[in-house]
Specification:
Number of domains: 2
Distance between the termini: 34 Å
Structural class: alpha/beta
Number of strands: 13
CATH architecture of the largest domain: 3-Layer(aba) Sandwich
Radius of gyration: 19 Å
Shape: globular
CATH superfamily of the largest domain: NAD(P)-binding Rossmann-like Domain
Oligomer: single chain
Number of helices: 12
């Protein structure tokens, strides 16, 4: 049997990189769509030289369609687009154009391959818990109303609905509704990595304080490789919408405490300062997911708990603080 072929957009990102590694280990041929001048490309290539990269941008429908037609993949995983809530507030038009409607060209191209090849083509969208921004239901599941409170969530909602439209059309299209997922590869522009990186520098004597915005925001944080695995399971499983989450609620304050605990600092509160400059225009107060469907239908479950995740991130940042050449 020939090796199955996958195309991964956002392949140089945190979760895209883990997904590529997992697919390759499982015997897939993996292609990735990479923007020109992607600063993360060199690190990705060093870690995953087996992947075949193609230049392209989700905002260029002709190019993305041409890449999919050329590769004729068995599965398309869309993890590309504007990568954070903060970035979407800085440029909401770009968030809508790329993260929201860029998926339409991918879906149509995947549909065309399925029609021409006469075989199943899976499409897996990395959707987001930010869909549920103003949810009054806790925890959230696949039936929770979609009520985003920021441009990122609104863009993800548009893509989410497009995936459902193509699933009804006959494409094996799924949404993995990913709640927050972290790892040592998370960029420092995200609050979680900012926390672990700064705590590590404080422990190494290289920083004096950690400055944050809202310490009371609550999220459901999981281990990014687990969430990449969920996306791969969705590609081969029953098409549908799947919440991917741990079901455990933790505040930013909990995350900070766990990181300081990992470096042996108990009296951490004097080392943390809140600054209104880091507050978002709107913040979803409680996002916690119910992944019962993914557990039941896909056989997925998380393998790393909250404390283990924070400790792994903090340990990696402490090692880098002490030895800058250690990060890969």
């Amino acid at each position: 049997m020939p090796q199955p072929v996958a195309l991964v957009t956002g392949i140089t990102g945190q979760t895209g990189g883990y997904l590529a590694e997992q697919l390759i280990a499982a015997g897939w041929t993996v292609h990735g769509l990479v923007r020109d001048a992607d600063a993360a490309e060199a690190d990705f290539v060093a870690r995953t030289p087996e992947a075949v990269l193609h230049s392209g941008d989700l905002g260029d429908a002709d190019r993305t369609s041409a890449v999919i037609a050329e590769i004729a993949p068995d599965a398309v995983f869309n993890l590309g687009g504007v990568s954070s809530v903060a970035a979407s507030w800085n440029d909401p038009v770009e968030a809508a154009r790329v993260t929201g409607f860029g998926v339409a060209a991918l879906l149509e191209a995947a549909w065309a391959v399925q029609e021409s090849a006469g075989r199943r083509v899976a499409f897996v969208q990395a959707s987001s818990a930010e869909l549920f921004g103003a949810a009054t239901q806790v925890p959230q599941n696949e039936d929770t109303p979609i009520r985003p409170v920021n441009p990122y969530g609104a863009a993800k909602a548009a893509a989410h609905h497009l995936v459902a439209v193509y699933r009804d059309r006959g494409l094996a299209a799924s949404n993995g509704i990913l709640f927050n997922h972290e790892s040592p590869r998370r960029p420092p522009t995200f609050v979680t990595r900012k926390i672990t990186q700064t705590v590590a520098r404080i422990a190494a004597g290289q920083a004096d304080e950690l400055v944050l915005g809202n310490l009371d925001a609550v999220r459901d944080w999981g281990w990014a490789p687990d969430y990449a695995r969920a996306l791969s399971l969705a590609a081969t499983g029953e098409p549908g919408d799947y919440v991917i989450a741990t079901g455990q609620a933790h505040s930013v304050r909990d995350f900070v405490e766990a990181s300081f605990t990992a470096v042996g600092i108990d009296d951490w509160e004097p080392l943390v300062r809140q600054d209104a400059a880091f507050l978002r225009p709107a913040d979803a107060p409680v996002l916690v997911g119910d992944a019962s469907k993914a557990r039941r239908v896909l056989g997925w479950q998380p393998s790393v708990d909250f404390a283990g995740m924070v400790a792994a991130m903090t340990d990696a940042d402490l090692e880098e603080a002490r030895n800058p050449a250690s990060r890969t």
